[in-house]
Write a structure and sequence with these properties.
The complex is a heterodimer of chains A (271) and B (354). Chain A is mostly helical. Chain A contains 12 helices and no strands. The chains are: A mainly alpha (271), B alpha+beta (354).
Chain lengths: 271, 354
C-alpha cells in the first residue's frame, strides 16, 4: 500500500468516526445523563449513578397524559393521511407529464411552507368556521403536510409498478376495484407500512405547527417544551431513552422479519 | 367451435404516427393464427386493439360476429398472455391461475379445484402454493397459459410469449402450445417476429410491415407464393435478382437479368416491361440441372447442422446463397471456386418492384 493510499484510508476513517460522533454523541450524552443524580439533565458534574429519574417519569402524570394525547393525534393523523396520500399518488402517476409537474408542485408545497405558517393558517381558517384549537385541529394541521411524505413514498413505489399487471387483471375480467384491492394494494403494502411509521414519527415529534393549534390539549412535545421553562429534569431523558430503545428494537425486529423473506424490499431505501 | 375474430378496416393513429393502417382479415374459430412482422410493425398494437386495451382510431372488431369495439377488455371473451407474462408476484400460483374465476365470483373451494385441474394440465401438479418467483422461466410460462385458459376464453391472444426462453425450451413450448391449442380448440392469435416460429405453429399467418398487412395465408403459401417483395424477403431466406420483365406466358415470366435470360412464376400484378425482382430460395438452387443457370464464386460455406449455406457472389456482384444438404457436402464446390447453380422456373417467383 502506498503512502497516499494510507493517508486516504486514514482520512476516510477519521471522517467516518467524526460522522458517527456527530450523529450519535448527543444521543449518547442525553442517554447517560438519565443516570446522573443531578437535578438537571447533564453529565458534568457526575453526582452519582441512579435510576430515580425512571421513577420520576413513572409518577409524572402530566407526561403520561401528554404522551397519550400525542398517540391519539398520531392515530388520527395516520388514518387520515394514508388514504388521502395514496389517492394523491395515484392521481399524480396517472397524469401526463406537464399536468403532473404542476400537480406535484402544488402537492408538495406544504413541505416547503414553514410549520409555523401552517399552524397559524389552520387556526385562522377554522376559527372563522367556529372551530377552536384542540386535538381535531392538531390532526388537521399535521395531516396537511404529512400527506406530502405519504404521497412521495407511495409515488416512488408506484413508479416501479408494472402496468401490464393491471392490464392482465382487467383482461381476466377483473373490475377496476378488484385490480386495486388484489393487485395494486398488496404491491403498495410495504410502502404503506413505511409511510404509516413515518407519519407516526412526524406527528409525535412535531412541535412548531402543533403549538398554534393545540388549544387546551397538550401533546408530548408541547409538554416537554413547557417543562424547559418550568424546570427540566432528567425524567425527560428517561422518556427519550425508552423511546430510542423502542425504535431500535422495532427497527431490528423489522429487519429480521424482512430477511425472513417477506417482500418488504426497498422500503428502507425509500425512507 | 370457438369464436372467430374479424377485423374490419381497423386503423390506429398515435399523434402523427400511423401504427396500424386499414387492416382487415378474419381469423376462423379454432384456428392457430399468427401475426408475423419485424418489431415496430404494429402487430402488438393490433393485438391490444383485439384485447380491448386500445381503442382503434377507426374500424371495428367482431368476435363471434358481435361488435366488440365499445367493450372494455374485461367484457370481451378474450384472454391475453403478455410478453412479460405479468403474473401477480404477490399471489401464490393457484391464486394467479384462479384470478379470472375470482373476478367472476366463483367460490374459493371451486377456484382451488379448477386451479388444481389446470396445474395438472400444464404438468405442474403440486405447485399451487409456490410463489411465481420460485418458478423457472418455462414454469412461469405455463402458469401464464393456465391463468389465461382458466377463464375459458373464446380467443387467446399471445404476445411473443416465448421470446424470453432459451432455444430448447422455446422449441418445447412451441410444441406444447400447439398441442394445447388442438386439445382446447380455442382460437389462438399469436404475435411473433420469429418467422420460423410462425411457420412451424400456425394454421395461417398474417405478415405485417409498417402497419399494413402484406399477405394472409397458410405457411406454405407464404413461403412458396409470396405476394409482395417484403413477404418474399422476410419469410425465409431468399435470393433476389433485379430484372426487367420481357414477357409473361401461361403464368411464367421471362426476365432479363445480369445473368442472362431467366424464367420464373409471375407474381400478382406483374406486367411486361416493368422493373421487377426474381426471388429464388437457397434450397431451390442445385449444382446440377435446372432450366435456369447462374454462376457464382463461392466465398464461404456456413455449416448449420442439417444443411450448409454456400455464400457466393455473381460476376455483377449480386450475392447468392445456396443451401446444400449435409449429406452432399462432400461434393460441394470448394471456396474460391467458380461454380454453377440451376433452378426450375416453378421454384422462382417474379414480383414487381414497389
Amino acid at each position: 500500500m502506498s503512502a497516499a493510499d494510507r493517508i486516504a484510508r486514514a482520512l476516510f476513517g477519521f471522517y467516518m468516526v467524526a460522522f458517527f460522533l456527530y450523529l450519535f454523541a448527543p444521543l449518547a450524552i442525553m442517554g447517560i445523563a438519565t443516570f446522573n443524580t443531578s437535578r438537571f439533565p447533564t453529565v458534568t458534574p457526575w453526582r452519582g449513578t441512579t435510576l430515580q429519574w425512571f421513577d420520576a417519569l413513572w409518577s409524572d402524570s402530566g407526561m403520561w397524559q401528554s404522551l397519550w394525547t400525542s398517540f391519539i393525534v398520531a392515530f388520527f393523523v395516520v388514518i387520515t393521511v394514508l388514504p388521502i396520500g395514496t389517492a394523491a399518488a395515484l392521481v399524480l402517476t396517472s397524469l401526463h407529464a406537464r399536468a403532473r409537474s404542476f400537480m406535484y408542485a402544488v402537492m408538495v408545497s406544504p413541505l416547503l411552507t414553514p410549520g409555523v405558517v401552517i399552524g397559524i393558517a389552520t387556526l385562522v381558517l377554522w376559527r372563522q368556521l367556529g372551530v377552536g384549537g384542540g386535538v381535531f385541529l392538531i390532526v388537521v394541521a399535521q395531516a396537511s403536510f404529512i400527506i406530502c411524505y405519504v404521497m412521495l413514498m407511495i409515488t416512488a413505489r408506484l413508479q416501479r409498478f408494472d402496468p401490464t399487471q393491471e392490464e392482465a387483471a382487467l383482461g381476466l375480467g377483473a373490475s377496476k376495484f378488484m385490480v386495486f384491492r388484489r393487485v395494486l394494494l398488496p404491491f403498495l403494502k410495504p410502502a404503506l407500512i413505511a409511510a404509516g411509521f413515518l407519519a407516526v414519527l412526524q406527528s409525535i415529534e412535531n412541535y412548531n405547527t402543533t403549538l398554534f393549534v393545540r388549544g387546551f390539549d397538550t401533546p408530548l412535545t408541547v409538554y416537554i417544551a413547557t417543562k424547559v421553562r418550568t424546570g427540566l429534569t432528567p425524567a425527560v431523558n428517561a422518556l427519550a431513552l425508552i423511546m430510542i430503545a423502542i425504535t431500535v428494537f422495532g427497527a431490528i425486529a423489522y429487519e429480521i422479519a424482512r430477511r425472513r423473506g417477506a417482500d418488504g424490499g426497498g422500503v428502507a431505501v425509500q425512507l | 367451435m370457438s369464436h372467430s375474430v374479424e377485423l374490419d378496416h381497423v386503423g390506429v393513429t398515435f399523434g402523427t404516427t400511423r401504427a396500424v393502417d386499414d387492416v382487415s382479415f378474419t381469423v376462423e374459430g379454432g384456428e392457430f393464427f399468427s401475426i408475423l412482422g419485424p418489431s415496430g410493425c404494429g402487430k402488438t398494437t393490433l393485438l391490444r386493439v383485439i384485447a380491448g386495451f386500445l381503442n382503434p382510431t377507426e374500424g371495428r372488431i367482431l368476435i363471434g360476429g358481435q361488435d366488440m369495439t365499445p367493450l372494455g377488455p374485461n367484457q370481451r371473451p378474450t384472454a391475453m398472455i403478455f410478453q412479460s407474462l405479468a403474473l401477480f408476484p404477490l399471489m401464490p400460483v393457484w391464486e394467479n391461475i384462479a384470478f379470472g374465476l375470482e373476478a367472476r365470483g366463483v367460490s374459493k373451494a371451486e377456484r382451488r379445484k379448477k386451479a388444481d385441474e389446470l396445474l395438472k394440465l400444464i404438468a405442474l401438479e403440486g405447485y399451487g402454493d409456490r410463489m411465481p418467483g420460485e418458478l423457472s422461466g418455462g414454469q412461469r410460462q405455463r402458469v401464464a397459459i393456465a391463468r389465461a385458459l382458466a377463464v375459458e376464453p373464446q380467443v387467446l391472444l399471445l404476445d411473443e410469449p416465448l421470446s424470453a426462453l432459451d432455444l430448447k425450451l422455446r422449441q418445447h413450448m412451441r410444441a406444447e402450445l400447439r398441442a394445447l391449442q388442438k386439445r382446447t380448440g380455442v382460437t389462438f392469435i399469436y404475435i411473433t417476429h420469429d418467422q420460423s416460429e410462425a411457420l412451424a405453429m400456425s394454421d395461417r399467418v398474417a405478415v405485417m410491415s409498417a402497419g399494413v398487412v402484406q399477405q394472409v395465408g397458410a405457411p406454405r403459401e407464404l413461403y412458396d407464393n409470396p405476394a409482395t417483395p417484403f413477404v418474399a424477403t422476410f419469410v425465409g431466406e431468399t435470393n433476389a435478382l433485379s430484372c426487367t420483365v420481357k414477357g409473361i406466358d401461361n403464368g411464367i415470366a421471362t426476365v432479363e437479368t445480369a445473368h442472362g435470360t431467366l424464367t420464373g412464376r409471375a407474381g400478382d400484378g406483374l406486367t411486361g416491361g416493368v422493373a421487377a425482382k426474381l426471388y429464388v430460395r437457397p434450397e431451390a438452387l442445385k449444382p446440377k440441372g435446372g432450366a435456369n443457370r447462374l454462376a457464382a464464386t463461392i466465398e464461404r460455406i456456413d455449416f448449420e447442422g442439417a444443411f450448409a449455406l454456400a455464400h457466393g457472389v455473381a460476376e455483377d456482384g449480386t450475392p447468392l446463397v445456396a443451401s446444400i444438404a449435409s449429406t452432399e457436402l462432400a461434393s460441394a464446390p470448394a471456396i474460391g471456386e467458380k461454380s454453377g447453380f440451376g433452378f426450375e422456373s416453378t421454384n422462382a417467383v417474379v414480383l414487381p418492384d414497389v
